[in-house]
Design goal:
Oligomer: single chain
Shape: globular
Helix content: 25-40%
Number of strands: 5
Number of domains: 1
Distance between the termini: 33 Å
Length: 130
């Protein structure tokens, strides 16, 4: 069983508590270790990500929402001690996130399941939070 490191926990600052709970449970269920790369983000950072092609919207759930929290996190996966961005590993982590979300009664969406823009590292709260 894995646990989030201090850096990942710091990156969850100002993320919605329900999503934090899902992330913390998912790491316990995941067959692969993972860490959090980003939670809350500024509009300046989001604008740059759109310009760089890393995002397609300025209306990101990473930005503070009406409740003051970010509703999204990005993660990386670690396999055999190294970070990987291969979708085949994210698929198992996505399963862990959805299992955690179901256990906790939290609706989530995974960028790794989007049809138009595959964003495997991305997880966000679902429509019930909008």
């Amino acid at each position: 069983m894995y646990a989030l490191g201090k850096r990942s926990l710091r990156r969850l600052t100002d993320v919605h508590p329900d999503l934090i709970a899902v992330v913390k449970r998912a790491i316990q269920l995941s067959p692969y270790d993972f860490g959090v790369t980003e939670g809350v983000r500024t509009i300046e950072t989001q604008t740059q990500y759109v310009a760089d092609g890393k995002s397609t919207t300025l209306n990101s759930m990473h930005l503070p929402q009406d409740d003051g929290f970010s509703h999204a996190v990005d993660i990386y996966v670690i396999v055999d001690g190294s970070v990987t961005w291969e979708h085949k590993y994210f698929r198992k982590v996505i399963q862990a996130f959805f299992t955690a979300a179901i256990e906790l009664g939290v609706q989530i969406e995974a960028g790794g399941l989007w049809r138009t823009f595959l964003d495997s590292p991305h997880f966000q709260l679902g429509n019930q939070y909008r």
